[in-house]
Amino acid sequence: MLFSAIFITLYVLGWLVLGFVPWLALSVITRGNAGLRYLPLSLFAGVVGGLLVPVLIRDDGLGLILSFVLALALPTAVLAIQRATRSPTAESRG
Q: What is the mean pLDDT of residues 33-59?
């Protein structure tokens, strides 16, 4: 039981780190204009993306790798969609 709790905690921490990376990259690219309110969204998308694979698709070694890939890809897609659908007036503010 203790080992299961340790490994689940490590998986969730890994998914959180991979959910943080796209937000950090966007923040660096936009010189701090990534929006702090999108950080929890990015972290949540990373955990949900990582959890979807073992629950719905695979629960073996390949599923573990796919869960980390999806934990990086889903927040990247969410932030890209958010960035693409921003209104032009918000970008023109100095």
A: 89
pTM: 0.82
Q: What is the DSSP string of 38-76?
A: HHHHHHHHHHHHHHHIIIII--SHHHHHHHHHHHHHHHH
Angle between helices 2-29 and 61-84 (to 10 degrees): 30
Please tell me the predicted confidence (pLDDT) of residue 32.
80
d(CA 39, CA 62): 28
Answer yes or no: are the C-beta atoms of 10 and 63 closer than 8 Å: no
Four-CA torsion 24, 83, 64, 16, nearest 10 degrees = 40
Amino acid at 17: V
Greater confidence (2 vs 16) lies with: 16
Is the CB of residue 48 less than 8 Å from the CB of residue 77?
no
